[in-house]
Here is the input.
Amino acid sequence: MKLARRRRTLVAWGFSLPFVIVFAIFMLIPLATSLVMSFTDITARDIQTPFNVNFMGLSNYFKLFRDPRYLHSLGTTGIFVVVGLPLTMVVALAFAVTLNKGLRHVNAFFRALFYAPVVASTVAVSVVWRYILQKDGLLNTLLAIIGVQGPDWLHDTRTALPALMVMTLWRNMGTLMIIFLAGLQAIPEEVLEAAEMDGASEWRKFRSITLPLLRPTLLLGAVLQSVLYLQFFEESFVMTQGGPLDSTLSASYYIYEKFGFGQYGMSSAASYVLFAIIALVSLLQFRILKSED
Amino acid sequence: MSTAAVTMSPEISENKPSLWTRFRKAHGITYVVLSLVGIIWVFPFFWMVLGSLKTQREIMAVPPTLLPKNPTLGNFTQWFTQLHFGNYFINSLVVAVVTMLGNLVFCSMVGYALAKIDFAGKNVLFLLVMVTLMVPSVATFIPLFVIISNLHMLNSYFALILPFLTQPIGVFLMRQFMQSIPDALLEAGRIDGAGELRIFFQIVLPQCKPPLATLAVLTFLSSWNNFLWPLVAAQSNKMYTLPVALSLYSTGQNATNYSVLLAGAVLVVTPILLLFVFLQKYFIQGVTMSGIK
Here is the structure.
């Protein structure tokens, strides 16, 4: 019996070994090293001698939280998530509810249509949207037709971040729509029919039956997408380079900038803070999810 | 019952529902609205294609023209002749294909061990994989950069591929699916004297086409669109992937050269959109399977 188990263990690790080796070198070790680096003064000059650096305790973290630009980048990321994500969810839910009834084949077509932006490279669509949003671009030309003079969206501190949010909504909505559609299809038809018999209106049915039953799905969607929203980077990189006046400087962008300056210790500290936030958010949301079932 | 049905039917045929009622029954209004929204939704893609066909002079026109007056493929030729498109395309393709194949092999092997073999260390391994599901690449890229540069692999295919060969989501997908394969099937193979590898390749893998297809699409897509790591690890023209090349071109001195930029965006987005049209099912499954845990 014992021998059989030992043999099984050997076989199983044989199957796992290729994965485990690559996974350890390129995932687990970097993840741990990142934390260690955040406690040191490592810079780009130490790259050949990464062990020859000074231990600094928490000083990188103190420096970080005294840097108004870093706090600002966290704030920007926060606004992006807190405003952008619920908006995306509302739009996705509206699409999902609409596409959940009617003709199946036509709905499949529209589902694909609304999902298409998700598969496109963020860099490529950012280029397109930058072109649409420029001062004399498509959007302002259309606005001019109805007599509105649009701002220079991406060069105005008031409109740059909202513009990025709208683009992100457009690009990411499809994922949530698919998840919500799956959730809607799991709602038993009898429940809705029973409510209909009782004379409940469409809105009433949605609020009192669909929405409560959809809660776990909504939460799941929120977790998955908040992880993405918290990391937003490419949009700023291509469309605004963090500007104007840092108004689209995200936490990821700050990390990338510090890395570019060669301040690896500081950069690692900033990346660990972001990682901790992401881990916390997903943990929190999974907790809520668990307590619901 | 039957008499009621008989007496009912002539009434219905007498009051043939009006065109309007039939339109409403078929969700006509919904589809009109959906079509309008759908046109707006994909318009950025049309605008991208239209712009890519305009001359550099026409693209500057205020207000912008809708259709190109003198459609030209010059912007595309520029990518092919002067901007090394072929080079970037091959880089993106090699990286995406190898990443995809690597994940298929590695993840299905671990997935098999975790799903079908009871062995020492199983729970620890599974926990480690699950914990890293949420780790963003921004949390590991700095030590990864140090490690890769000390392995003298920066600016090579190794640097672009290795860190993405072991996606935790793949292990999760494969394990989840393989758990549903009946043990009796494997036992039958063992009784026939098949070795562990043969059981895996000849009995288990052929059953796993759906999750393998989903994982293939998922890893190819994320590799093709991947940005932060290639931006850091590819340090010369020779190793740039498509998104990196496009983003650097779009933020450099050619930032306003939109006709060429849009042609670049078309070239990045088209292969994936084509894949999406043909393999839609697996794209959508990727969302629902990785979303619903």
About this structure: Chain A is about 75% helix and 0% strand. Chain A touches chain B through 91 residues (CB under 8 Å). The CA atoms of residues 75 and 250 of chain A lie 8 Å apart.
